[in-house]
Amino acid sequence: MADREPDRHAAKLRLLRTPNIGPVSYRQLLARFGTAEAALEALPMLAARGGRRDVRLADPRQVEQELRTIERLGARPLFVDEPAYPALLRATESAPPMLIVRGDLSLLSRQAIAIVGARNASAAACRFARGLARELATEGAVVVSGLARGIDTAAHVGALGNRTIGVIASGIDVSYPPENAELQEKIATDELLVAEQPPGTDPLARHFPSRNRIIAGLSLGTVVVEAAPKSGSLITARIAAELGREVMAVPGSPLDPRAQGCNLLIREGATLIQNAADVLEQIRPIDARAVAQPVDRFEPAFEDVSETELRAVIDLLGPTPVQVDEVIRLSGLPSPVVQSALLELELAGRLERHAGGKVSLLG
Fold it and tell me: If both were cysteines, with which of 3, 183, 233, 275 could 227 make a disulfide (CB 3.0 to 4.6 Å apart)?
């Protein structure tokens, strides 16, 4: 029998590229219907139950073109239900349904540590990050960062030749910042480059938080070397904390604004680290079996929803995000019924999902 992987990839990508399909709804649809093909067939019915009857599935020609472009670039799609998909990232609620990867996929199965920090980092901080990354990679850890200027670049350079993963906010074929084009290509050739956005996508501001969640999700722990109080690096650290991962920070002078973010993290409970041994001490006690086989909590059972039950769920929702567990408790309905109702509302474009398992009603 001929290999149907290209057909399966096309169906999965078409499901993902259809409007109102997010990470949670994508996985719920696969869990409910078994295949992307079956989910696509059911979408119009589900969206209509949620209040929308003009559902337009993604254009199959555009999907095929995207897959051909990915292949031409020497990359490949990696879907969340495939064995090679990183287990730690899969165990997160907002795991991207598809990654576009280029390079050595075996790095995704190794213990990883994220190193992030300021773009306008000091020379001393860049030197420290470079040395820290080199030591960690030499000890067998994979260093994950975002290929930005400053600390990210230093971390990648330090780990290059051993083990490093670059996660970018653009398409797999777009280099940003431009001066890192050679470094990005070297990582894609010798190590591993990861993107979530389609090829050709520019690194827009809204893409960076998504990139940060991948960096944190891939890693057992996140080290922040230098960061301002309101920076992307602290967003990555916050996501890591929400995921129950280790958060570590390098202390700095209170007179340097670039150290304020790290000092704040330490004051709030992050582990103070001064060398690679400190980092390894935090992650090495973690049971490797928990990394290889994390518990997947995001594929609930489903049940058909009556109009009365759907209205009961809608009445509990509003513009303010609320925990799904709270909706279940207040409605008195079984969890599968509430999950099904929320899925129908999302497919109809009437529900927005937020971090931390919260939802809100749109319009």
Answer: 233
